[in-house]
């Protein structure tokens, strides 16, 4: 898999934002549409996400406590690239989950 870069902007001239980095990331919500079939691909789905974490493509992941799906945050060069990565997730590929949200998100972290 390719290494994906993060967009980083440093606001050194703005005193309110001095030392803050802004990273453009992509937040997705995968909604479970077939719970029974989803259980069949769950191990493969988790392995996929763990691989993306190791590669540095995935920043965060986790299921919703009501078992309706999960939220993931990806690093990508564009929303189209993020969508292509997400579409290779076994749960999406096998139609047990669907992308119910995919948004560009600016995370600001103090450094």
Automatic annotation (TrEMBL):
YCII-related domain: residues covered: 26-106
Gene3D superfamilies: Dimeric alpha+beta barrel
InterPro entries for the chain: Dimeric_a/b-barrel, YCII
Coiled-coil stretches noted in the UniProt entry, renumbered to this chain: none
Domain of life the protein comes from: Bacteria
Family: Belongs to the YciI family.
Annotated protein name in UniProt: YCII-like domain-containing protein
């Amino acid at each position: 898999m390719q290494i994906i870069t993060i967009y980083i902007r440093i606001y050194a001239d703005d005193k309110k934002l001095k030392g803050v980095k802004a990273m453009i990331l992509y937040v997705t919500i995968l909604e479970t549409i077939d719970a029974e079939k989803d259980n069949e691909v769950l191990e493969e789905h988790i392995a996929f996400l763990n691989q993306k974490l190791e590669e540095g493509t995935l920043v965060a992941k986790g299921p919703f406590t009501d078992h309706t799906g999960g939220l993931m945050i990806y690093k990508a060069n564009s929303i189209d690239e993020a969508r292509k990565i997400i579409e290779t997730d076994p749960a999406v590929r096998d139609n047990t989950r669907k992308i119910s949200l995919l948004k560009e998100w600016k995370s600001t972290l103090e450094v």
